[in-house]
Amino acid sequence: MELGTLAEWAGAIAAVIGTLISLFALSYARKANETAEATRRESQAANKEAHDLEAQRDKRLLAGSLQAWWAKKHDENTWGVLVANLGQAGTVFRDVTITAKVNEYRKVLDLQVVPPGLLFVESTAAGSGWGLPAAVEPHECDYLAKSSKHEITRIDFTDQLGVHWSWDPDRGPTEVGLPE
Predict the structure, then answer these.
(1) From CA 155, how far away is CA 99, in angstroms rounded?
(2) Residues with Cβ < 8 Å from 80, sequence gap 6 or more?
(3) What is the Rg, in whole angstroms, of the alpha carbon atoms belonging to the chain?
(4) Are residues 58 and 89 in the same domain?
(5) pLDDT in tens, the chain (180 residues)
(6) Are 46 and 128 members of one domain?
(7) How is residue 130 annotated by DSSP?
(8) Is there a single domain that holds both residue 49 and residue 18?
(9) DSSP assignment, residue 51?
(10) Are 110 and 136 within one domain?
(11) Using CA atoms, how far apart are residues 178 and 106, in angstroms rounded to an integer?
């Protein structure tokens, strides 16, 4: 058995070294690909989370466009609830229920639709009901911002996306899902 020439041995050793270097390079490339894939997945998850947070923020901004206060009209000296829909998108709210407190009475105001703008709804004798909603300008009313005898305690409504919301003074607007 012949062992071969020096050149054959050198070629065989070079081939083995080349194979080892190739295996090392392959292993290094696989690790780099795994790192790149993990980074891509993390980036996608972060983008989705940011998108979801932005969508939730947009929905809360939309819901925050509907507000209500007790108010008094200047010219008639009448009390009532001022319902404000002042969002930028021209939103129409539906199935609006405003729970108000006047003195020791609890009054519930139901409105099928609240278009953009300001509506004044006169409060009739304590506990007995409401007048018809009427569009007003901001300068026509004095807003009652803080009173222990006159306050809005809750607003339930559905936005233009069909999302049902509930507002209270402590939590602000909270998404509550579909109305029952």
Answers:
(1) 6
(2) 70, 71, 72, 73, 120, 121, 122, 123, 130, 131
(3) 34
(4) no
(5) 566 688 888 888 888 899 989 988 888 889 989 998 988 888 888 888 888 788 777 777 777 888 999 998 887 778 899 999 987 767 899 999 999 988 888 889 999 999 999 999 998 875 568 889 999 998 888 888 777 788 999 999 998 888 899 999 888 888 886 545
(6) no
(7) B
(8) yes
(9) H
(10) yes
(11) 25
Chain length of the chain: 180
- The domain boundary residue, chosen from 34, 63, 92: 63
**pLDDT of 54:** 83
Residue 84: domain span = 67-177
State how beta strands 164-168 and 172-177 pair: antiparallel
How far is it, in rounded angstroms, from Cα 130 to Cα 114? 15
Residue 123 has a CB neighbour count (10 Å cut-off) of 22
What sign has the CA pseudo-torsion 105, 111, 115, 119?
negative
- 45 and 73: one domain? no
CB 97 within 8 A of CB 158: no
| 116 and 100 assigned to the same domain | yes
In one letter, which amino acid is 39? T
State whether 126 and 152 are in the same domain.
Answer: yes
Residues 117 and 90 grouped into a single domain: yes
Q: Structurally, how many domains does the chain consist of? A: 2
d(CA 168, CA 97): 12
